[in-house]
Write a structure and sequence with these properties.
single chain, alpha/beta, 6 helices, elongated
């Protein structure tokens, strides 16, 4: 199934944009190759609000959030995961509103670091964030005129969660599913097997509208997520084909598979290839000496 990305997004910096009944989107001005135009924060409710993903530590973004709140109380602050573009502003927002923070848990890698391995993603992690309320899968949080169900979706990070606005068919998909791009799955913070399982979990839900952490909405979630799944399977096949053709390193594979990709993203692409290779080695389809590593040597399984 063809995967078509939608990059026609107006971030409307400094403004709150209505994207669903009683849902406002505020986009932080933190554009980058990884965040698109910036991080989306959401306000849910009419009288008493919930905040979903406060965003980066940024004075202007905080000011816009407070302006959009228009003096209304905040009862809950939900955090989808602990990358620095999503969670750091939660601390100041909690201090200003008195609302508790809710998330799956603190930042942690999807697997333990191997001997001599250095985590290249530490700088992007908000290691200071610890939620006041730890959310279990399927937990229902009831607010003033709204209810939000937690759906745990590890893959992009180990502690990634998405939030369903109960009874509406709307799901805040954070970085797991985005209309503008695929999600980065980079070991050791993320794991490809987890990501694919979480994608199947969301496909089974049949939500009608996804509001992601970056970019615009996904308006045909089932079709788009089936396209994402096909895209990942095609990437897996491409990696297997490069190994059968004689490529032995991740650098060689990235040069061939991502030749049309922005070179600034090649480092992330290498980690994505590693995520696939970890899964392929675990399934017995690719061989390597020891554990799969970014500088490892890979070959077809015997």
């Amino acid at each position: 199934m063809a995967l078509e990305f939608d990059t026609s997004f107006d971030p409307a910096y400094g403004q709150a944009v209505a994207v669903a009944p009683d849902v406002l989107r505020i986009t932080a001005r933190n554009p980058s190759p990884f965040t698109f135009h910036g991080t989306n924060s959401y306000l849910v409710g009419r009288e008493t609000l919930a905040v979903i993903d406060p965003g980066p530590e940024d004075d202007a973004h905080l000011e816009t959030l407070l302006k959009a709140m228009a003096g209304r109380p905040v009862s809950h602050i939900f955090v989808s995961h602990t990358h620095r573009d999503h969670s750091p502003l939660a601390a100041r927002l909690k201090e200003l509103t008195g609302a508790p923070t809710l998330a799956e848990g603190p930042h942690r890698p999807a697997r333990a670091l191997r001997i001599s391995e250095v985590n290249p993603l530490d700088a992007s992690a908000d290691l200071a964030f610890v939620p006041d309320v730890v959310l279990a899968d399927d937990a229902l949080t009831v607010g003033d005129g709204w209810a939000i169900r937690t759906v745990l979706t590890p893959g992009h990070t180990a502690n990634h969660a998405v939030f369903a606005l109960e009874g509406t068919g709307t799901l805040f998909s954070a970085d797991h599913v985005m209309a503008w791009s695929t999600s980065i799955v980079a070991p050791p913070d993320g794991a490809m097997a987890d990501y694919m399982s979480s994608l199947d979990k969301l496909l089974a839900r049949e939500d009608r509208l996804l509001l992601p952490g970056h970019g615009g909405p996904v308006t045909a979630p089932g079709r788009f997520m089936r396209g994402l799944k096909t895209h990942r399977k095609m990437r897996e096949r491409a990696i297997l084909e490069r190994i059968r053709a004689g490529d032995r390193t991740i650098k060689e594979m990235v040069s061939a598979i991502y030749r049309d990709t922005d070179p600034r993203l090649h480092g992330a692409a290498g980690l994505s290839v590693l995520a696939h290779l970890e899964d392929l080695v675990a399934r017995g389809l690719v061989a390597t000496e020891g554990d799969p590593a970014i500088d490892g040597i890979f070959s077809p399984a015997a």
